[in-house]
Amino acid sequence: MKRILIGIGAFILSAVILLGVTSIFFPPVLEKPALTGKYIVGFLETTITDPSRTMQQNQPRVISLDVWYPASGISNKLEPYDTATLRSLLQKIQNIPNIGGDTPSRSYRDAPALKGKHKVILFNHGFASFTKQNFSNMEEMAGHGYIVISIGHPEDSLVARDVDGAIIELNTESTVYQQLKAIEKRSQISIKQLEGLLTTQRHTSTLEQHKTASRALRQHEQYAALAPQLETWVTDTRFVMQSLQKGINALPFADANWVVISGHSLGGMVALEIGQTSSAGLRGIISLDAPWIGTTLAVPALVMVSTEFTVGGSDLSLHGTFDQPLRSGKGAYLLEPKGAAHMNFTDLNYVPVIKLFSPILGSIDGKRMGNILNTALLEYLRQLEQKPDFTKNLLPTQDDVRQVVFAANK
């Protein structure tokens, strides 16, 4: 068995798990749900360049974008869920066997876009993960008329691209990566500290107490190590938003005046960070199992968190940690699916074999969790298109999902 680093961002410590000889793309894999939207789904890749910042060798910073969108017709190629390049990097960097072949999705590469302007969701994955980690959710939202743009961060994403399409691999020599690896060597101590901080946050009774607990959580060595990446990703995401306002040539059909920022893990922290201030075109945020280390949200939110995530005997789930700050925001829906662990908020729902080797998937049924995710995402977006109703649950009442609705603070 090998110890590997799965890129799950804010909970990267807990992902140094014994996974044996399995792969996150290794069969048996559950069939992903059928699309319910009325539109054909297109897929394209593009990049934008920020000349004000640089990467290695002093090259201008290039941000790669994977885009799902409503299409007016099909093309002759279905985009695969995973590729030989991705599997090769998983093997090279994470010691995961390169097994399997390209599995076609339901998204047509470079299909003609549906005419008109379409609302936009910007997505950030977890640290050291990749743009397609929530492929099934992207397809579903695009099929309902939204453009979903997943952001690739050069040297922080498992795989990104330069302007010529050449691969930019995760930089395993970066300061943050090496810091996290060093923390992993003393993981039991660090994880125990993290559990204590989350417990304190969970049991606060006032907003001021919660702010104090959140500041302490932000100073934990794991989050302190990730702070530069959080800042960089926030800057990347804001640059994408600004570029949409100015017009991205490959995306003339994007409505820059209706944007939702979403993300998982470190990507969810990006959404929560940006959501603390109002920005041009920003309508709301979606955070999938990211910790709260901020102050108060300035836009409506959908927050979904884990309830069953135990690592080394420590409870690292986020249930109960958001109630206080969401009471003071601009309205929010909080969902806590019973039995959901950190990676149940990704397409790993459809790889149940992972449960045999790792706590990153909880006891919840993968298909059930996938349905909860897609239903919640679409209903939240539908609410934003109207005036969100913060007087009733987002989803029908269900025994396996704790739901709390927070009215907008005036």
Search tags:
Rossmann fold, single chain, 410 residues, 9 helices, eleven-stranded mixed sheet, two-stranded antiparallel ribbon, alpha/beta
Protein model, in words:
α4 (187-202) runs antiparallel to α5 (207-218) and α6 (221-246) crosses α7 (266-274). Helix content is 29%, strand content 25%. Mean pLDDT is 89; it is low at 1-27. The protein has a single domain (3-408), classed as Alpha/Beta hydrolase fold, catalytic domain (Rossmann fold). The protein has 410 residues and is α/β, with parallel strands linked by helices. Strands 5-6-3-4-8-7-11-12-13-16-17 form an 11-stranded mixed β-sheet. A two-stranded antiparallel ribbon has the order 1-2. Strands 9-10 form a two-stranded antiparallel ribbon.
How do the strands and helices of this protein lay out in sequence?
Blueprint: E1 3-5, E2 16-18, E3 40-54, E4 60-71, E5 78-80, H1 84-94, E6 104-109, E7 118-124, H2 135-143, E8 147-152, E9 159-161, E10 167-169, H3 175-185, H4 187-202, H5 207-218, H6 221-246, E11 254-264, H7 266-274, E12 282-288, E13 301-304, E14 310-311, E15 314-315, H8 323-326, E16 330-337, H9 366-385, E17 401-408
Parallel strand pairs: 3-6, 7-8, 7-11, 11-12, 12-13, 13-16
Antiparallel strand pairs: 1-2, 3-4, 4-8, 5-6, 9-10, 14-15, 16-17
Helix pairs in contact: 2-9, 3-6, 4-5, 6-7
